Amino acid sequence: MVRLLPANVTFGLVLALIVSVLGAGHAVAQDRLSIATGGTGGVYYPYGGAMANVLSDNLDGIEVTAEVTAASVDNMLFIESKDADIAFVLGDTAYDAVQGNDPFEAAVPAVTLATLYNNYTHIVTTDDGGINSVADLRDKRVSTGAPGSGTEVIANRILTAAGLDPENDIDREQLGAAESADAVKDGQIDAFFWSGGLPTGAITDLGATPNVGLKLLPSSEFVEQLTTDYGAFYSVATIPAATYTGQDEAIDVIVVPNLLVVHQDMDEQLAYDIVRTIFEQRDQLILAHPEANNLTLENATTNSPIAYHPGAIRYFQEQGIEIQAATPAA
Fold first, then answer.
1. Are residues 30 and 159 in the same domain?
2. What gap in Å lies between CA 109 and CA 231, rounded to an integer?
3. At which of 230, 256, 282 does a domain end?
4. How far apart are alpha carbons 198 and 69 in whole angstroms?
């Protein structure tokens, strides 16, 4: 089940309303779980919605809903406050949260259930914009992602690595994937960053728009700098040619692992059952988005920069898979 929340409504407010309807003294029982996803134009949203459905259908007595959010940074805060039970989060953001690094004021007690797939750094512009590299974004109108998103984190880091000040050297907008794509169509921005799976729906729609010549910029040249400055969870992968209409060449970009995270206090049996169910119902997740093809036992147990939940570890050990050491920070 997917539930859309207005931008000015928080999980805490929704839960407070539920409590008020039920009456004073009634707590929200653990027969309801929420999954913090992302914006409607990305991969987290359809993937999380499908996950909510399979969990609701297969966990006895539990209803699961998927929430639209600003994504990774906000999702970690929702885990910290327990306003969300499960969250999709970029690995670099999860690491910063657990360490208590900026923008987090204190360490977030979060752990991993599984590594899901890689997020590819899309730097999107058009053929007629005169932009051929990250350095060419200087003085351009650029969206760096929604406030509180993992996209914003990696956009700021790439711009800095390219010698640009994200606050002063670009005309900065802060839009999600769908809003950014619409702004390019309308000529309101020149380029945008998006960290997401393949394909991302909003970019697919942009590439299919008449009279829009889609162009993606490479970012692999910055991986060494990002790894040195922030941690060894950054790597390089290729967006294959023709992933999007109008994208004729393969593009090498920075990738970051996506994690499914929960609060460390989650009941061990519940965590075990969640992991077991998403693997047993993997085919249903693939129907919602092809990135679920990457949900394998081997991928799920590698490249997490934070520790795994004991319930997840028990499931993977039963499958004969040992957790690989968490990626160390540089």
1. no
2. 19
3. 256
4. 20
Model's pTM, two decimal places?
0.83
Neighbours of 99 (CB within 10 A): 15
Residue 277 has pLDDT above 60, yes or no: yes
Question: 251 vs 14, 123, 153, 218, CA distance in Å?
Answer: 42, 10, 21, 6
Smallest Cα–Cα separation from 114: which of 329, 312, 315, 328?
312
Query: Which CATH number fits the domain that encloses residue 186?
Result: 3.40.190.10
Q: Tell me: do 138 and 236 sit in the same domain.
A: yes
- Distance between CA 256 and CA 157 in Å, rounded? 13
Position 247 in a domain: yes
Domain total of the chain: 2
Contact 263, 245 (CB under 8 A): no
In a domain, 26, yes or no: yes
pLDDT in tens, 43-69: 999 999 999 999 999 999 999 999 999
Residues counted in the chain: 330
Q: What is the DSSP letter of 135?
A: G
Between CA 222 and CA 244 the distance in angstroms is 23
Query: What confidence tens digit (pLDDT) does each residue in 124-178 have?
Result: 999 999 999 999 999 999 999 999 888 999 999 999 999 999 999 999 999 999 9
